[in-house]
Design brief:
Layout lengths: L5 H11 L3 E5 L3 H14 L3 E6 H6 L5 H12 L5 E8 L2 H4 L2 H4 L3 E4 L6 H17 L3 E6 L21 H11 L3 E4 L16 H10 L4 E3 L7 H10 L1 E6 L1 H17 L6 H23 L2
Parallel strand pairs: 1-2, 1-8, 2-3, 3-4, 4-5, 5-6, 6-7, 7-8
Helix pairs in contact: 2-4, 2-12, 8-9, 9-10, 11-12
The protein binds glyceraldehyde-3-phosphate and zinc ion.
Length: 282
């Protein structure tokens, strides 16, 4: 199957009243697990590569992106490719040529006027270059340099501000701060479902939930029912990866062939992908 654009995958989720899951990948094994797990679930999926993941690969986005695109092309389900949490305009400007159909431009740490102005400029560039663009309003937090948590006063997305932000920037999707936080290793986040519903009513574009690894299954389903249309998941894969490797190495101190423990990591990640797709894709 050829690569499917994020625009089409999110559009399909909107018309079904469902959500598309988007998984952050760091290594080839992550990408293989996401595509394999989606095939087992029989559901489409988005593979995301973040600016931080690109930095990990010596600031070279092409090798992992091409590998993910090749996996998508031989997949039995629709797979999209999204560049996530971009703050560096030079990287954003590489996105289309690198093979991404969409990006998330992240200026959420800036003041409202600066976020709006910088996002509007990024949207103009993205649309001129055929890219679907997501941006964040409010502050999800939890990233290594976060100045605030999900519960700091004033970080939640305000529906009136969201209406204004979407109209002024022309953004294609809005990432919202509704109680989740990045990089949680326990599924204990409490979402504000009334706020999600108010935001869905306020803006004409799909809503995106970030930091979804920390959200329990039931809350993920309720978030979709309230209007979330794209669900971003990263840490859950890293927990599964590390658990698989650690358990293997703890049981066998003599192993030196990485295929043995990476195969375990990949199987565990694919299981997480299968489970979460069943939870959110409906
Ligand atoms: O953009 C990526 C996500 O928000 C992932 O967050 O690692 O907490 O699941 P997470
Ligand atoms: Zn995120």
């Amino acid at each position: 199957m050829p690569l499917i654009s994020t625009s089409e995958l999110v559009g399909d989720a909107c018309s079904r009243g469902s959500a598309i899951a988007a998984f952050n990948v760091i290594t080839l094994e992550h990408a293989e697990a996401v595509v394999h797990g989606a095939e087992e679930a029989g559901a489409p999926v988005i593979v995301q590569i973040s600016e931080n993941a690109v930095k990990f690969h010596a600031a070279r986005p092409i090798p992992l992106t091409r590998a993910a695109a090749a996996l998508a092309e031989s997949s039995t389900v629709g797979v999209g490719l999204h560049l996530d949490h971009v703050t560096d305009l030079a990287l954003l400007h590489l996105a289309a040529d690198a093979g991404f159909s969409s990006a998330m431009f992240d200026a959420a740490h800036e003041s409202y006027p600066d976020n709006l102005a910088h996002t509007a400029a990024a949207v103009r560039w993205a649309h001129d270059n055929g890219l679907w663009l997501e941006a964040e309003l409010g502050y999800v937090g939890g990233k290594p340099d976060s100045p605030a948590s999900a519960h700091t006063a004033g970080v939640r997305t305000d529906p009136d501000e969201a209406r204004h932000f979407v109209a002024e920037t022309g953004v294609d999707a809005l990432a919202v701060a509704v109680g989740s936080s990045h990089a949680m290793t326990t599924r204990t986040a409490t979402l504000d479902h009334d706020l999600i519903a108010a935001l869905a009513a306020a803006v004409p574009v799909p809503l995106v939930l970030h930091g979804s690894s920390g959200v329990p299954d039931e809350d993920l389903s309720r978030a979709v029912a309230a209007g979330i249309r794209k669900i971003n998941i990263g840490t859950a894969l890293n927990i599964a990866y590390t658990h698989g490797v650690r358990e293997f190495l703890d049981r066998d101190a003599t192993v030196v062939d990485p295929r043995k423990y990476l195969a375990r990591a990949r199987t565990e990640m694919a299981g997480v992908v299968r489970h979460l797709l069943a939870t959110v894709s409906g």
